Amino acid sequence: MSHRYIFSSESVTEGHPDKVCDTISDYILDACLEQDPLSRVACETLAKGNLVVLAGEITSNAKFDFEERVRDAIRGIGYVNGDCIFHADTCRVICEMSEQSRDIKQGVDSAAAEGKATAEQGAGDQGLMFGFACNETPELMPAPISFAHKLGRELTRLRKAGEIPWLRPDAKTQVSIEYDGFKPVRATTVVVSSQHAADVKQKEVRETLLELLIKKVMPPEWLDEKTTYLINPTGRFVIGGPEGDAGITGRKIICDTYGGMGRHGGGAFSGKDPSKVDRSAAYMGRWVAKNVVAAKLADRCEVQFAYAIGHPDPVSVSIDTFCTGKVDDEKIERAVREVFNLRHRLGRLWPERNFDRGKGNARIDGDPRKVRTPKTARRCAYHGFAPHDDSDGGIDRNTGRSRRECALGFV
């Protein structure tokens, strides 16, 4: 007998203080990789009031103005209004960077070193990473986080397009979905909290966002007379962004993945180059899980990898289809190991959609100096795994094949 329950997921817009910091960290990463694809970057950001602090480790031949990149990131988000204390043109920027530890570097470099077991490039750290996919939505994401991201993305579009002039950058969304077993049935609650100008009243905020946002984004068949709408439930949201709350890179890792539906290994993504398996192996995990579901081998799939610092191969690979698999999980696992090269090497674990399509070589497992330039900042908000400009994620759901390589169609 199926079990009925409600599952909720939240998303944040790019103006949320933590997501501001994620975006700044990825702007710094992109600036390094644009000039030097072999850059090693671990950039953390803190924002509070009108202050931004950068800290971390960078080893790169890239030369650029850190403060200028920070201001570009903030300006791109939209903190340019005179009624916000946090502002792209006036914020203070403090930068405390050092080079990557030599001990870590020798483990990641494609070179022999004393005490290192192999001359191959190894993972940049130990840890475990998860990938997840399910057939609830066209992009093979869980419905709650998918709708939460779509609401946040449209809210930002309405603000940047000037269609709702009183909107400000900071906002959060949350969607609760009722399930019957693994099948999503209806939306029980939709929550939207958006920063706004001081002169707009709550009644206008509620009516406008209900009509122009929620009813536009949420399919009508998901809503009914019992659906609850909570829009700016405190009654006022004028003080927002880093003025209202301190922001730090890496505090929205559940928003960045599956909204709690799939597990998370604990490592953040933003500000990290491809040698950091926290990011690259999580991307590969999603790529593998999505291929399994697109190939109709299972209705949902979770993949776990684990790596050791300085070691090129994963120390474990695990597949769980939650009893929805059309074949045994062990058979899918063997196929995954055969089809996907999970050995860590610069860029190999990053699916190509994370790269600028207009630059460089199409292959990411060849010469690392020919790897396309990643554009991580544009994937930072509204979920890096389900980009709005590629709703099928590069997977043909009929054949189960990616546009670039076999997607387990032989299993």
Any key phrases for this structure?
411 residues, alpha+beta, GMP Synthetase, Chain A, domain 3, four-stranded mixed sheet, 13 strands, 26% helix, 23% strand, flat, disordered C terminus
Helix-strand blueprint:
Blueprint: E1 4-12, H1 17-35, E2 40-48, E3 51-59, H2 66-77, E4 92-98, H3 102-108, E5 127-134, H4 143-160, E6 167-180, E7 183-196, H5 202-217, E8 228-231, H6 241-244, E9 247-248, H7 277-294, E10 300-307, E11 316-320, H8 329-339, E12 395-396, E13 401-402
Parallel strand pairs: 3-4, 7-8
Antiparallel strand pairs: 1-6, 2-3, 2-9, 5-10, 6-7, 10-11, 12-13
Helix pairs in contact: 1-2, 4-5
Give start-end ranges of low-pLDDT stretches: 352-372, 387-411
Main beta sheet, described?
Answer: 4 strands, mixed
Radius of gyration: 22 Å
Please tell me the CATH architecture of the domain at 4-13 and 142-240 by its name: 2-Layer Sandwich
What does this structure look like?
With 411 residues, this protein is an alpha+beta fold. Among the domains are: 4-13 and 142-240, GMP Synthetase, Chain A, domain 3; 17-107, GMP Synthetase, Chain A, domain 3, CATH 3.30.300.10. Helices cover 26% and strands 23% of the residues. It is built from eight helices and 13 strands. The chain has helices at residues 17-35, 66-77, 102-108, 143-160, 202-217, 241-244, 277-294, 329-339, and strands spanning 4-12, 40-48, 51-59, 92-98, 127-134, 167-180, 183-196, 228-231, 247-248, 300-307, 316-320, 395-396, 401-402. The strands form four sheets. A four-stranded mixed beta sheet has the order 1-6-7-8, with helices on one face. It has a four-stranded mixed beta sheet with strand order 4-3-2-9. The protein has a three-stranded antiparallel beta sheet with strand order 5-10-11. Strand 2 (40-48) and strand 3 form a beta hairpin. Helix 1 (17-35) crosses helix 2 and helix 4 (143-160) crosses helix 5. The longest helix has 19 residues, at 17-35. The model is unreliable at 352-372 and 387-411 (pLDDT under 50).
